[in-house]
């Protein structure tokens, strides 16, 4: 009885040996040239102090811009529109978004303050704002619950404006950048 199964293609043995040898040589070559520091390739580090300062300002501007955009889009603007008032249409959803945005804003402002430490002028300008940034820590839960949401929006607005002013004074102007909803959820 003959089998009707298709036959497998045959590869000459010499080609197969060359291919396996070449693959092994490439594998050994790439692992031998690698370093033991797994983070070295993932996090490039600036070599000069000028580069460190430039990157510190860039990261500060990016983090503060995302914080400002989230606070304005999902906390300050809805508060001014009356979305947090009892009986307002979409109040519950606005408060949930405001709670997420509050947590995101706090996280990004903490990161921006840490980034500011890399630049002496920026560090000096942002240092007095640490207490204001820390005061935002408990506000996201109040926003979600609806406890003093308008007051919380005012605090966020004040802190964001202070950070933007400090950045501008240090030569790192902050421009609001509204984060995507996936960035907001990811923190």
From TrEMBL:
It comes from the Bacteria. The keyword Signal applies. Residues 1-34 form the signal peptide. Keywords: Signal. This is Secreted protein. It comes from Streptomyces monticola.
